[in-house]
Amino acid sequence: MKKWIAVLLTLTLAAALAACAPADTNTPATQPTQSAAPEAPVQTETPVQTEAPVQTEAPVQTAQPDQPAENPADMTLESMMDAILNGVSDLPAIGSTPLDADNFEFFAFTPYADGLQGLASEAMINAVAHSVVLVRVPEGMDVQEIADQMQANMDPRKWICVGAEKSSVTVHDDVILLVMSFEATEKQIRENFDALYAQ
Fold it and tell me: DSSP 3-state assignment of 136?
């Protein structure tokens, strides 16, 4: 009888201890619920943040003011010839000839004198009556007198077989322009020459 009482007490004590003991964390009932998604990796170091490049605003493009026109007194005869022929419609194929003591009178219709500078631009085909001549007169010489000589002596039919429709001599400062060409061409070249000195 004592044995049975001892066994009964032992079982009661074991049951009481089991009820008071902490739950076993390894049992399925007490394991935390695992989500289907894998856990994010634990970052042990804070990533170094580099500075974003500073973006500067593009400079605002403002309209550039028109460049001042070149002073005709500073222009070479070559650049002046380019300027007065620029944009002329129906201009024939042309070639330029610097004037010297040997050819000056043929193109400019006045004798050469020391200090005179000249440039001729003529049609490359002799059957086309087209000639543009610029003469720069040095200080101390009478520009108008030389222009008058060119006007009086010029020959719009120097090509023999053909003749220029329109001829003119124009003076600005120390430069003389002689044109023999088609009427519309002569007008455009003369107006371009005038425009150089109007600026």
Answer: strand
